Amino acid sequence: MIEVNELSKRYGSTLAVDSLTFTVTPGVVTGFLGPNGSGKSTTMRMLVGLDAPTAGTVKVGGRLPHEHEVPLCQVGALLEAGAAHPGRSAFDHLHALAVTNGIGRRRVNEVLALSGLAEVAHRRSGGFSLGMGQRLGIAAALLGDPATVVLDEPVNGLDPEGILWIRDLLDRLAAEGRTVFVSSHLMREMAQIAQHVIVIGKGRLMADLPVAEFTGALSGRRVTVRSPQAAALRELLLGPDVTITTVSRTELDVEGLTSEHIGDVAAARGIPVHQLTTSQASLEEAFMKLTREAVEYRAPEFARGEA
Ligand SMILES: Nc1ncnc2c1ncn2[C@@H]1O[C@H](COP(=O)(O)OP(=O)(O)OP(=O)(O)O)[C@@H](O)[C@H]1O
């Protein structure tokens, strides 16, 4: 469990994190979304105690960062790819980390296998691709078998196969009852890996809800209807809060009604329907809409600040 309470971080005149409050619960993969520069990395650094908050608190497993005796065993983090010494092999890098944290050699081999690096374990990590570097970072995060896993942009540099791999891995970690918190500015990837999202814009909390609700609530549903009697059906469907666009003589785009309702109305009047599809806006569209609103909302404040 991660509990963030009224958390703020200021760097000079930049308020990177602005009174954030949220909880990340165990058992599901929680995505941390926001455009570049919105404060995700700063928040994650404070989570693991690498940066001190200007105000507010963050607790992992009920404790403040400095209260963890062996931090690696409470919270495993991937914060910066390529943190390994390039001359060291993956095995040596992980082994050194293990030794300094009182973790056995067996666990090193386990995380190497888990991250798909067993075969290249003794190669210099300097020759690793970006994706392999990410895998090594994830292996290091899991080394202490932590109850909480925090990964900053783990899909960066991963190919589609790598993204599938990370999705499976995160699902497994969550199913084991761990708290899994993963940041990304890439909506599509996040839609594939998270079940819940926390969205920030300019350091502020914008949304905290299940992925499906996030897309549904923000975008509204649009139903595409194809019928040889589209014009007649259109007349029957019109009403308050219903927007109907006539795409062609046989096709309508309907906003504000469910496909069930449209199908029932057509059936009741004996109007043939050849297609009835609900298109849910992609997470990306929903995200752009949300963060655009965040920027607009913040604009007057910036103007005041500069005056
Ligand atoms: N050490 C620092 N000193 C000064 N400003 C900083 C520092 N770290 C972050 N910032 C600023 O704080 C804001 C938030 O940055 P942060 O890296 O947390 O965002 P992010 O959402 O992780 O972005 P990205 O996706 O690009 O990593 C930015 O305006 C950034 O320039």
Question: What does this protein look like?
Answer:
With 307 residues, the chain is of the alpha/beta class. The chain folds into 2 domains: 2-216, P-loop containing nucleotide triphosphate hydrolases (Rossmann fold, 3-Layer(aba) Sandwich), CATH 3.40.50.300; 221-280, 2-Layer Sandwich (Alpha-Beta Plaits). Helices cover 39% and strands 27% of the residues. It is built from 11 helices and 13 strands. The strands form 3 sheets. Strands 5-6-7-3-8-9 form a 6-stranded mixed sheet, with helices on both faces. Strand 1 and strand 2 form a beta hairpin. Helix 3 (90-100) crosses helix 4 (105-114), helix 4 packs across helix 5 and helix 8 crosses helix 11 (283-306). The chain is elongated, with a radius of gyration of 24 Å. The protein starts with a strand and ends with a helix. 39% of the residues are buried. Bound molecules: adenosine-5'-triphosphate (ATP). Adenosine-5'-triphosphate (ATP) is lined by residues 11, 14, 16, 34, 36-42, 185. Adenosine-5'-triphosphate is lined by residues 11, 14, 16, 34, 36-42, 185. Residues 2-227 form the ABC transporter domain. This is ATP-binding cassette domain-containing protein. Pfam families: ABC_tran.
Structural class label: alpha/beta
CATH topology of the largest domain: Rossmann fold
Oligomer: single chain
**Which stretches are poorly predicted, pLDDT < 50 over at least 5 residues?**
296-307
CATH secondary-structure class of the largest domain: Alpha Beta
What is the element string, with H for helices and E for strands?
EEEHEHEHHHEHEHEEHEHEEHEH
What is the arithmetic mean of pLDDT? 86
What count of domains describes the coordinates? Answer: 2
Q: Count the beta strands.
A: 13
GO molecular function, one term: ATP hydrolysis activity
Family: Belongs to the ABC transporter superfamily.
Pfam family, one: ABC_tran
Keywords: ATP-binding, Nucleotide-binding, Transport
